[in-house]
Amino acid sequence: HGGKHLVINGIGNNVGIGTTDPPLTKLQVAGEIYAQGRVYCQGGIVVRRDDDGRWRTMDGMGWNETSGPSDLRLKKDVRPLPQALEKVLSLRGVAYKWNNLGLQRLARFAETYDAGPGATEQEQLQVRAAKREEAYKQFSGTEIGMIAQEVRQIAPELVSEHADGYLGIAYERVVALLIEAIKEQQAMIEALGAKSAAMPVA
Q1: Element (H, E) at 62
Q2: How many Cβ atoms are within 10 Å of 35's Cβ, its own excluded?
Q3: Tens of pLDDT along 49-108?
Q4: Cα separation values, 101 from 105, 134, 180, Å
């Protein structure tokens, strides 16, 4: 009616909305979907990406990718990391525990949990409280790492500021700095070895 289409495929009991093509799944919608309330999905969400036209499964942490992009064809202004050894020697590794504010921030993901369709508000609160307590136990032990404020003074490219003003360290980027630092140190060792070998034997 009025240019809108509703197609029912009697063979597979499939329903199509906004399309005249036979629907391929139980429900196929051509256009946008608006839901006033929660949307529940058991089994995962699969989305077609515009960059390559392939389908991707989205999990709770983001896209299921095995690694980040690192192809040279995607980069420009590639240059060495200067004074890597000096920077690494200035970094400080520490052992620490999260304070109450840190635990609350780490446990924020608990608010994304849901008790399921038809659950009462009390049941929702109980599920999230249980996940929050689980997170507190997980993160209450001794951790090791660095202090973002200190790292920013030495290697600011390793530190980012979140929307709420707190700082984070991209620990995966430290690998590149360590690689160059080891190479610098190895060059110093080899230079000392060559110098020692060149000295006359008494």
Answers
A1: strand 62-63
A2: 6
A3: 666 667 776 655 444 455 677 889 989 999 999 999 999 999 999 999 999 999 999 999
A4: 6, 16, 36
DSSP strand pairing (6-9 vs 94-96): unpaired
Does the predicted model carry a pTM greater than 0.85? no
Distance CA 74, CA 110 (A): 36
Going by C-alpha positions, the residue among 84, 72, 92 that lies closest to residue 157 is 84
Cα(102)–Cα(152) distance, integer angstroms: 19
Q: CA 86, CA 185: separation in Å to the nearest integer?
A: 10
Cα–Cα distance, 198 to 200 (Å, whole number):
6
CA distances from 164 to 101, 136, 160, 167 (A): 13, 21, 11, 9
Residue 150 to residues 18, 97, 145, 156, 168: CA-CA distances in angstroms? 57, 17, 12, 9, 11
pLDDT for position 83: 95
134-154 tens-digit pLDDT = 999 999 999 999 999 999 999
